[in-house]
Amino acid sequence: MLGLDYYSYLRFSLCQRDGISWIRFLQSVNLNGALCDDMGLGKTLQALVGIGLAHCQKISNDNNKHSNEVIKSLVVCPSTLRGHWFNEITRFFSIGQFYQVLRHDGNSKKRKSSWRLGINTANIIVTSYSVLRQDIDILSSVMWTYCILDEGHLLKNPKTGEPLSRILFLAFVRSTLYFHFEISCLFSEFQQPRKLLNK
Which is deepest, 48, 67, 114, 199, by most CB within 10 Å? Predict the structure, then answer.
C-alpha cells in the first residue's frame, strides 16, 4: 500500500510509516490534511516520501497518456527553514536521480532568472512565505501536485493567507499538506482559507 519499494535504502520508524500511510491515504481520496507531531520525528522526510510516491504514481498514469509534463510540487516555509528543506532533500535523495530542486529565493532579479532557467526541469520548488506574497502571479501559474505548508499556522496572517488562497482554491493544487506542532491551533487554521474566500 505504501509503495516504499521506491525507497528501499531508507529505514523508517513505525510512526514514520504511519505518517506516510496517512499522506498516501489523503492523496488517494484527493483530500488535504495535516501532519502533526513533535519536532525531530521526521515529518520532513515523511512529506518528501509522500510527494515522491505521488509523483511516481502520476508519472505512471501519465505514461499511459504519453504526457511530457514535468510533475511539480511546492514547499512553502519560513525563510529560516529553506536551508533545512534543501539539506533534507540532498541528504535522503540523490540530486538528479529523483528530485530536481529549485530554490526560489533571493532578490527579484535573481528569482526571475533562476525561475526562467530552472522551472522546466525542476520537480520540487522550495520558497518562503514572504517570497510567495511577492511572486504569487508566477507561483499560481503552475499546476502543483503537492503544496507543503511548513509552519501552517502562518495562514492566520492575512498577508500570507490571501495569496495562498489563490493557489489552494483555484484548482492549481491537487493535494495540500500542513505541518503543525500544536494540535490546539489546528482547527482554526483549517478555517482560515475559507474565511479569506468569503471576504
Answer: 48
- E strands, the chain, are 33-36, 73-77, 101-103, 124-128, 144-149, 173-180
- On the 0-12 / 13-18 / 19+ scale of CB atoms within 10 A, 71 is buried
Query: Residue 47: what are its φ and ψ, rounded to 5°?
Result: -65, -45
Residue 143 CA to residue 2 CA, distance in Å, equals: 24
Q: Please name the amino acid found at residue 52.
A: G
Q: Which domains does the chain have, with CATH numbers?
A: 4-197 (3.40.50.10810)
Contact, 129 vs 78, CB < 8 A?
yes
Residue 25, CA atoms < 13 Å, CB-side half-sphere: 9
- The answer on pLDDT for 115 being more than 90 is yes
Please give the helix or strand (H or E) that residue 43 lies within, else none.
helix 43-63
Indicate the pTM of the whole model. Answer: 0.77
User: Which residue type is seen at 86?
Assistant: F
d(CA 52, CA 98) in angstroms, rounded, equals: 8
What average pLDDT does range 155-162 have in this prediction? Answer: 62
